[in-house]
## 1
Amino acid sequence: VLSNGFNKARDRLRGKIELTSGNIEEALRDIRLSLLEADVQYGVVKSFIAQVQEKAVGEIVDTRVRHGGRRLKVSPGDHFINICHQELIDLMGPVETGLRFGSRPVSAVMLLGLQGCGKTTTAGKLARHLAKNKRTPLLVAADIYRPAAVQQLKVVGEKLGLPVFSAENASPPEICSRALQHAREIGCDVAIFDTAGRLAIDEPLMQELHDIAAATRPENILLVCDAMIGQDAVNTAETFSRRLDVTGFIMTKLDGDARGGAALSIKQVTGKPIKFLGMGEGLDSLEEFRPEGLASRILG
Amino acid sequence: TMGRREISDAVLEKIEEALVTSDLGIATVDHLMEQIRWQVRRNELNDAEKIKDSLRSAIREILVKTEQPLAIAPVQKPFTILTIGVNGTGKTTTIAKLAEIFRQQGHTVMLAAADTFRAAAIEQLEIWGERTGCRVVKHAPGADPSAVAFDALRSARARSADILIIDTAGRLHTKAPLMEELKKIERIIAREHQGAPHETLLVLDATTGQNAISQAKLFSSAIRVTGIALTKLDGTAKGGVIVGISDALHIPIRFVGVGEKVEDLRPFNACDFVDALFD
Ligand SMILES: Nc1nc2c(ncn2[C@@H]2O[C@H](COP(=O)(O)OP(=O)(O)OP(=O)(O)O)[C@@H](O)[C@H]2O)c(=O)[nH]1
Ligand SMILES: Nc1nc2c(ncn2[C@@H]2O[C@H](COP(=O)(O)OP(=O)(O)OP(=O)(O)O)[C@@H](O)[C@H]2O)c(=O)[nH]1
Ligand SMILES: [Mg+2]
Ligand SMILES: [Mg+2]
């Protein structure tokens, strides 16, 4: 299920006494292949390989100086893999999984993303997570387009025993502002806006997101992203985060065998932290992001 | 005029990047670029445009083999279509679009709400049924999907419906119990209606990367997959994974989804697809 690019690189360096720029280059080719198979974006792979190369070559010099040309305790293969692994962890971190809560009575979390990536399900997961952490969340059905979207969120709310706000004949920005008011009335301290899936190139719908944000000033704007997304992850993430003040993102469907390389691409390109990982269809399947697991999965 | 050394590594890398970022996959791209480099060395290609033409025709050659539109065969009614795929790819919406196409062609269509798991899945299909004028067979949420399929076949036959389209829950191909459930649905359908399902349509999302290959492989090794619908091609993703899938599995590509409205489904056309790849 996971590609063996990682192991290939390690095997290639087996029996070598030290890392040289020559044998590193071949190992780097294996890593490059593995990252591309993992859906890391082409340009992101290029700069990652260059960074690792620089680090590894730097290491050769360092270890030679430090050990006076003697053998390393760790095999060069493992040492090289550790450099790659660590570089990936550093790039995907630091860990910033906290959500922001403002000084106003009701804070807001706005979820957005492409069609079908898991926003509605994730809204439920987030609400459950917040409730477990002593918050009183209100789910807000701001998708007025998809057939039965409001009903879907209501069923999710029912399963969790959490309130859902919806309104007929209202635009999404109106729904969300009224939801903040409603939250105050019923004693909720955080509203989670479930918005309709949309293409980042759909101008009217991007304007709608902008209008929701302008009307409600959400403390958290989270881009929800499907782990199986391919090279387009960068286009999508860039366009969304250029139009909105995205504060972080959530990667879903990591319970499958998608390598999730988009996580690295999106982090590199937007600089925004990965907050949560969706690990299943169940509403309890949400984890706070930790770079180590995702890094190993992406490297293969 | 162009000289021998006009094709620099930079030019080739730009072309490789364009193919990889279209999700063709590095293995497919390496194979295609190998052929290109060989042609360049033999001086058969001496500028970027000729290289792109050569790639276009190589890819078209692969896709033209799987450009096979869905024909409603004259079988014992109802012609039964089973829709499958991982979560969120557009199965339910694609069913609505198919229903619309068939209705416009004069067929009577019924739908089966066999996604008994996901919140409001049945309601979602019911709304599409209303909009397209198709009767929807459903049970209560949590019911056995095979029972819904069975019931729908009975009902479709009783009403002499021409076509029955069965919606199933999204499922990850790596989840054995869910794949077992799918096999059971297929078995029940086959037992209840001779030759059914006549079409098993795997719905793939064009924004998906290399995981689409794993999806196609595992779904088609679990049950017989006779067609692919590639959705969300109205976005910026190119859906290049379909090239590797065609080459390896030869599953006919029936349709492409190009939007969220009921009319946004077209028969797959290899030439249009290849042109869009190089846009
Ligand atoms: N296996 C798995 N499935 C998930 C996960 N998150 C969501 N899903 C499923 O993905 C499908 C789509 O989820 P939704 O929550 O409807 O997605 P959405 O982004 O709200 O979709 P739109 O509103 O149409 O854009 C459903 O079948 C969910 O059960 C996850 O982490 N793992
Ligand atoms: N832009 C675009 N969106 C699409 C297309 N096809 C489906 N969608 C959208 O994708 C989202 C998911 O569609 P569904 O039909 O619910 O997908 P599904 O595969 O049935 O989802 P599950 O049953 O939860 O697995 C919805 O928001 C659809 O409107 C398409 O061709 N283009
Ligand atoms: Mg939704
Ligand atoms: Mg569905």
## 2
Amino acid sequence: MIELKDIYKVYGMGEVDVVALDGVNLKIKRGELVSIMGASGSGKSTLLHILGCLDSATQGAYLLEGNDVTHLADRELSRIRNQHFGFVFQSYNLLPNMTALENVEEPLVYANVAKRERRKRAAIQLERVGLGDRLNHFPSQLSGGQQQRVAVARALVNEPTLLLADEPTGNLNTEAGDALLTILSELHTEGMSIVMVTHDPHVASLAERQILLEDGQVTKDAPLTER
Amino acid sequence: MIELKDIYKVYGMGEVDVVALDGVNLKIKRGELVSIMGASGSGKSTLLHILGCLDSATQGAYLLEGNDVTHLADRELSRIRNQHFGFVFQSYNLLPNMTALENVEEPLVYANVAKRERRKRAAIQLERVGLGDRLNHFPSQLSGGQQQRVAVARALVNEPTLLLADEPTGNLNTEAGDALLTILSELHTEGMSIVMVTHDPHVASLAERQILLEDGQVTKDAPLTER
Ligand SMILES: Nc1ncnc2c1ncn2[C@@H]1O[C@H](COP(=O)(O)OP(=O)(O)OP(=O)(O)O)[C@@H](O)[C@H]1O
Ligand SMILES: Nc1ncnc2c1ncn2[C@@H]1O[C@H](COP(=O)(O)OP(=O)(O)OP(=O)(O)O)[C@@H](O)[C@H]1O
Ligand SMILES: [Mg+2]
Ligand SMILES: [Mg+2]
């Protein structure tokens, strides 16, 4: 489904470049549940952004369903993302001037879904993450964990085939975190591919395959059963 | 040192009010290390904001070193905060147009410390949290965990007597999280009072006293040794 070939991502910082990804080779099959762990600053979010076509590599190739998408125009990448990917950002990236409901509707606006249907689907996802009574709150009127759950609802509303989640339980207590993992588990059983960056070994144990990133390189990539 | 008496915090949301704190009574002694845990949305961040004089209660009294600060003017509260409190926000609240170094210098600017001394002290704190090589990065050029560590460095630079930290290890892997807890431990040994909101039982186990918040009420408040 996805193949990253010899991916480098370098940030030019004047005198000193930061090599965030230092030669990454990775294949992700349809329907896989993969976790990515690694130290703070090791390149996890950068890798997720490249996988989600949100950022382009400095060097290397990205093949999506066999098609080279490495050099596609922004507009085409945007369309692919909207149709196939769901993204939960490490800092949620909610629009501050829109309510929880409007934030979750947003991917459906892009996909030209009619208003009534959008409202309905967005409300369903918010109910699912336990925020049915917070639809009209603005992000600043929500707790950290609630904002995180709105971000999850938004990532799921377009029924993506691939979910890319960056620390999806980072601001959730055990109970809310487990509730979220149950949702992800169900979606995985229904066929969704999931790539999750996490620091939580509990979350990582949900994955069938665990990747370890160290200084921009994949140093471990193994099925969970081998441990 | 701190006493909260019958604190209520209610957010008016039109037809339905949100009672974030529902009658909280709490005393914190000088030099204590307290952890606050609770479900997502239970009122932890709200409680921390009130303790840090960043927000005023709807009802109830706040006594700081025996003085009623409940109705102080913003400017006076600001001065008290800058002199005595260090705050690590759940969403870091870094200024996007300032570098890591400048962000950490900021409380010292408010305190009228000379530029050379500010730079020196800010650099020391950033070194301490392992970001000595990221001084001139802007927040958008830092990983999530790096931004979190800049927020910690900023909270400590003015040598506060009380540190209020909201999920200080939420975006840190075990290694970086433990490094942070070691720093907090040392500061505590040197006399700092610390109130930490956390979902991580590992972090909570550092505390000598654990508070549980449920739906805006303190339902447990016990020394760690009693468990
Ligand atoms: N400005 C606001 N207006 C309205 N409601 C608010 C506002 N800020 C917070 N709330 C609500 O108050 C409750 C408590 O929020 P708070 O941020 O204190 O929770 P929390 O315990 O820190 O949660 P988390 O673990 O998810 O960070 C939540 O239900 C939230 O929706
Ligand atoms: N725009 C940028 N410009 C310069 N350096 C950057 C930029 N974005 C990230 N970096 C650097 O690239 C490295 C990898 O960042 P990344 O966000 O991928 O780490 P991470 O593994 O997600 O860390 P964390 O666990 O703390 O979230 C970090 O050292 C960071 O400082
Ligand atoms: Mg990250
Ligand atoms: Mg909170």
